[in-house]
Amino acid sequence: MAGWLREAGAPEALIASNGLLLLGAVKAVRAAGIAVPGELALAGFDNDSWTELADPGMTVIEQPVDEIGRAAMEMLLERLQQPERPLRKVVLAGRLVARGSSRTRN
């Protein structure tokens, strides 16, 4: 990853799908000597405790894990009570936690 980040046409931002992948990206970016957020913006999902303590703090989308669990349980109970009931889709909003690893573009 470090070599790819240094190539011409490298990205201006990376978004990791979870905290562990974000941590790996941070390690690779630091190994490549790339400044965050100066040269590359980083963001991810999950609001693990380390994301606030990192320097700079990592911008994340905090997922509503309690709501996800509650909705999943309700849907499971519905399915057990009415197996023929049509499937339904539930969309829950996450919360942006903007920290120092991202920046606005001019």
From TrEMBL:
Signal peptide feature range: none
Gene3D superfamilies the UniProt entry points to: 3.40.50.2300
Keyword Transcription regulation attached: yes
Keyword Transmembrane helix: no
Pfam families from the UniProt entry: Peripla_BP_3
Matching PANTHER family: LACI-RELATED TRANSCRIPTIONAL REPRESSOR (PTHR30146), RIBOSE OPERON REPRESSOR (PTHR30146:SF145)
Name of the protein in its database record: HTH-type transcriptional repressor CytR
